[in-house]
C-alpha cells in the first residue's frame, strides 16, 4: 500500500518539470545509499548490532531530511540536467554549469531514497550494514546501467523479489445488482480498507451506480490544464488522507 502511494508520488514528480534530468535514478540511488552508510557510521559509532527500530529510525531520517539543496545541486549541460552532490558520480566530468537549489529535486530525491530502501528491503539493508557491505556503487549497479531518470518500467519487473508484505487487495467489484444493504463477510472485511475505485474505462454497458464517476470522467477533456492540475492535487490529497495507518502516514 505505502509503496503504491510512493510510486504514485514519484510518478507525479517525474512527470513534472524535471523530465530533462539524465541519470537521476542512478544518482538518487547512489546518493541514498552513500548518505545512509555515512550517517549510520556517524550515529552508531562502530556499533554494528543495533535494534531494528533504531536502525530504521536513522534510515528514515536520512531519506526525509538529508537531501537538502545545500548539499545537492543541478548541473546543466546542453539542455540536460545532472544531479551533483555527495556520493553522486559525475557523468559529465569537467562540463556543465552547476547550481544549487533550482526545482524540487530535493523532494524527488527523498521519495527515491524511500523507494530504494523499500525495494532493497530494510532487513537486507541492516544485514549489509552489519557485514560492512553497504556499498552504494554495488547496490546501484543495475540502476546505473541506464541514464533513465523516471520511475518507469525499466527493468523493474522481476528484478528483485517483492517484499513479503501483504499486497493491498484489489478494489471490490462495483455493486451491480446486489441490494445495497446486503454484505458478504468478504465485503465487511474489505470495507475497513477503503480503496478508491478504479476509474472504469468507458464501456458500452453503463452501470447506473457509476453514473456520477462517468460524468466526472466525461468532463475531463473539457477542463483547462490548470483545472486538471487542481483536480489531480485534490485526488492525491484525498488519497493521502485515506492512507490511515500511522506507518503509511509516516512514509508519506
Ligand atoms: C561506508 O561507511 C564506512 C564508515 O564510514 C566507510 O569506511 C566506507 O568506505 C563506506 N562505504 C562506501 C562504499 O562509501
Ligand atoms: C564498492 O564497490 C565498488 C564496485 O564494486 C568497488 O570498486 C569499491 O572498491 C567498493 N568500495 C568499498 C569501500 O568497498
Automatic annotation (TrEMBL):
Keyword list, A-Z: Signal
UniProt keyword rRNA-binding, yes or no: no
Keyword RNA-binding applies: no
Pro residues bias (residue ranges): 167-177
Biased composition (Basic and acidic residues): 179-189
Composition-biased stretches (Basic residues): 157-166
Protein name: NEK1 protein
Region (Disordered): 147-252
Organism, as annotated: Symbiodinium natans
